[in-house]
From TrEMBL:
This is NADH:ubiquinone reductase (non-electrogenic). It comes from Candidatus Nomurabacteria bacterium RIFOXYA2_FULL_42_12. It holds the Pfam family NDH2_C. Keywords: FAD, Flavoprotein, NAD, Oxidoreductase, Transit peptide. Its EC number is 1.6.5.9.
Amino acid sequence: MLAPGAETNFYNIPGAEKYSLPLKSISDAVKIKNHCIVQMERASHTQNRNERKKMLRFVVVGGGPTGVELAAELEEFIKETFSSYYPPEIIADASIVLVQKDRELVPHFGPRVRQQSLRTLEKKGVTVMLGSTVKEVGVSYIVSDKNVKIFAETVIWVAGVKPAELKFDGKVAQSPDGRLIVNQYLQLENYRNIFALGDFASFAQKNRKNVFVPLPALAQVAEKQARAVAKNIQLAVAGKALRAFRYRHAGNLISLGQWMAVGEMLNFTFSGRLTWWVWRTIYLSKLISWRKKVRVAIDWTMNLFSPRDISEL
């Protein structure tokens, strides 16, 4: 069974891998948090306002779910959490910029979620650049495809992923984006004793227009495929017929900061505090042990009534 996951895709854009921060793991998140703290401290010691604005401009590249949630969290962390520790003139020079290549945010989600995400971010003060791509990343700047140069010392890259690289002695069928093509049982076409799932696999399924479309690289897709593969391995060992995999989407949820989330399920769109609570509850339920669930629940509850910790980890 192959499930090596995916890695950040920088699309061979000059300077992107060298000068930007990816967000793919917990260590990446810690590095971003520490970097924000350092930038704020550096900015508080300079009298040059243009330099200060460059230090406190945070550019998020990628308007998918990760980019949207990150932009909302960054805005709250920079503009609200730090406001308790730094003077207003420092906070006023901080800004968040979200660069998205498509004409809308979270393009794989429904229209109402896309619109709500944009409205909420703009209301928070996030500058959203739609229909723009980054063609170069430098030490303290980015250049868009429209030759717009944005000076910023922080660029966070969440513009997409690519499947992890594995070498095979034989020939394997791959999709245009490099994922391994699997059949209805999630097996490789030329190797029926090998299963693949998650971001590493390309499984096409008919949509409402009766057209075969590869499933998106979502956590819930990988989770359901994992259960299906485990069951098929049991059936294969027992010498029984395998079960074809059929994906049923459970819906989408996006956090847009504390007390705000937007979601869609069964053609219904909902947003607000209750949606945010549901979002957190679902994530809490994914933790493996009850001990971790209780610890995280207590930690989240305490965070509602106290400012975030701004010490470096």
